[in-house]
Amino acid sequence: MPMNKDSLNNLKQRLAEFAADRDWDQFHSPKNLSMALIAEAAELVEHFQWLTQEESRGLSDEKLKEVGEELGDVLIYLVRISDRLGIDLIEAANRKVDLNSEKYPASVVKGDAKKYTEY
Amino acid sequence: MPMNKDSLNNLKQRLAEFAADRDWDQFHSPKNLSMALIAEAAELVEHFQWLTQEESRGLSDEKLKEVGEELGDVLIYLVRISDRLGIDLIEAANRKVDLNSEKYPASVVKGDAKKYTEY
Amino acid sequence: MPMNKDSLNNLKQRLAEFAADRDWDQFHSPKNLSMALIAEAAELVEHFQWLTQEESRGLSDEKLKEVGEELGDVLIYLVRISDRLGIDLIEAANRKVDLNSEKYPASVVKGDAKKYTEY
Amino acid sequence: MPMNKDSLNNLKQRLAEFAADRDWDQFHSPKNLSMALIAEAAELVEHFQWLTQEESRGLSDEKLKEVGEELGDVLIYLVRISDRLGIDLIEAANRKVDLNSEKYPASVVKGDAKKYTEY
């Protein structure tokens, strides 16, 4: 079956089929998926924990490949949990960007970047 | 400026502009973004920590809205860190699904779901 | 050198010497240690992510040993970061228990356990 | 009742009584406690996510107080989960230090600190 692998929707579909084919939906409660998601996020953190910020900006190709795999894993669980909860992920993120745009107007916070941590 | 808000690419674009407009790229090292990502993932976990799995499957509309916001936040940082690292997120996730399909063939693991935790 | 291994203070001492002997204090900024701490916490979460609560209460001896190692790792980074920040960990925890005792008086919340998640 | 608040054992005792008085043991499965632990660890991470390592070493008194509260919270859940699993936390941590001492002999890794991330 040919499949367009480009979109988030197709990824959602693939993951739903993957779980159904293996009878794994029983394990995929939102509670459990939130745990799997944070465990993958932590594997990402692990790659960066002893690096300086500068070093984290200049990863080797090998490291980049490994980090890419962790990012893929996080997206997998993020899409899966959203699907199980019936939440539109892209819409949710765009709504947050809308909110943040109001909360932190560029005209106010720009050039005041040193206070970023206090917003 | 009209903007199609549907795709992951547009979200990436919006977030890049959002950060540039505020001079915040300086804070957005991959190291820092991995920390922000896991902090958002933890807010998701917090919603589920005292619930049973069953309860996590039947959230109220109000809870669903809150959880949706956390999911949006996780996606925001996930897209942002991928962008900063030049990683194609959808491609990375699909590559992981390909790998997992080989690693856990449905014909082998199906019906053996109780051993899921040992795969 | 004989050493009483029983107390948190001795652990703090051992970890300080361990890092000094290896010239590792340079990596042990509070920022980095907070990342290492959460990465270890996530390894703990991973052990439980596909288990039911009931199963998590009845771990096999082998699992218990593995989980014990993760708990040890979390304590190591927790003690280390507290030491680097000059914070008395036991005092900090007891202060939080004091606060929580006022916040959640037994006479009020007892028997109302189902609402635990809303406190 | 007078209580020596200095030791980890006393903290364990206090927390057990706190939960019993409120009928909260039912929520304190190891699975749930691992989630609460990582959620607290993430609040710690949040304090440091936009700081440089240097800044994280020089927190203001006010920040230090807040960070101390998060550290206390992490210890509370760490002690609680260890108690529920019957694991001696100090012993577990000391065993890990023993293992790490063998794994990373000072004579080998010292002065080679730049490779720390690869150990």
How much of the sequence lies in strands of chain A comes to: under 5%
The main β sheet of chain A shows up as: none
Number of strands of chain A: 0
Low-confidence stretches of chain A: 1-5
Tell me the greatest interface: A-B, 72 and 72 residues
Helix content of chain A: 55-70%
SSE order of chain A, one letter for each helix or strand = HHHHHH
Write down the Rg of chain A: 18 Å
> What's the quaternary structure here?
homotetramer
- What structural category arises from helix and sheet content of chain A? mainly alpha
Alpha plus pi helix count of chain A: 6
Head-to-tail CA distance between termini of chain A? 49 Å
Shape of chain A from CA axes?
Answer: globular
Walkthrough of the structure:
- Four copies of one chain form a homotetramer.
- The first copy, chain A, is mainly α.
- The first copy, chain A, contains six helices and no strands.
Record keyword descriptors for this entry.
homotetramer, 119 residues, mainly alpha, 6 helices, 69% helix
Short description:
Four copies of one chain form a homotetramer. Chain A has 119 residues and is mostly helical.
Summarize the SSE layout with pairings:
The structure is a homotetramer of 119-residue chains.
Chain A: H1 8-21, H2 30-48, H3 53-57, H4 61-85, H5 89-103, H6 106-109
Helix pairs in contact in A: 1-4, 2-4
